[in-house]
Amino acid sequence: MRIKTILVCCAIALASVQARAQWVVTDPGNLAQGIINMSDNIAHTSKTAVNTAQNFAETVKIYEQYKQYYDALKSVNNLVKDARKVREIILMVGDVSDIYVTNFGKMMNDENFSPRELDAIAFGYTQLLEESNSVLQDLKQVINVSTLSMTDKDRMDVVDQCYREMRRYRNLVRYYTNKNIAVSYLRARKKNDMDRVLNLYGSETAKYW
Q1: Which among 100, 90, 112, 26 has a CA at the least distance from the CA of 62?
Q2: CA 131 distance to own-chain centroid
Q3: Is 188 in contact with 196 (CB distance < 8 Å)?
Q4: Structurally, how many domains does the chain consist of?
Q5: What pLDDT, in 10s, does the model give residues 168-197?
Q6: Domain contains 73
Q7: Where is 155: in which H helix or E strand?
Q8: Inside any domain, residue 20
Q9: In this structure, is the dihedral angle defined by the CA atoms of residues 150, 151, 155 and 160, taken in order, positive or negative?
Q10: 75 is in which domain, residue-wise?
């Protein structure tokens, strides 16, 4: 009987640990911080690496490590109380990283770009990523509970401003990506090699050219 009691207690303890572990994984604050870390690490790696190919390989590694947070946060309805825009701002940070990694990976395999051009394109992505990260510093004023001097209106004003800025940066990254792909498209058309470019980037992207 004593052994059964011990086993039951152990089972309850394990269940409690598992429940806490699950909360850590699904906690919106942790998910948001994971995406912020991903963006910071990608920007830092992109800025400090010398070789573009090695740099991007490391960037992809970082992206894949943190992508679980980005995917998980998409299923979370509310991040900070009912501030829907806060969740969307964090998701847009993930969007910027996703657009960069997905499309620059294709550009690395595009013979229409020279190594020097790829360096320049990577630098442009890094600048946009760093600038979008700076918006998060203002957003942390809202998330940080120690900012007691802020009224609800002050907080929502900061959220609205961050939302507008982050949406602008995400749109800039999309525009920057499409303009670079357009360069490859024009070069491919001159060489009568459009099928290869369409297969690389997808026919859907052609509507931007």
Answers
A1: 100
A2: 13
A3: yes
A4: 1
A5: 999 999 999 999 999 999 999 999 988 888
A6: yes
A7: helix 152-190
A8: no
A9: negative
A10: 28-208
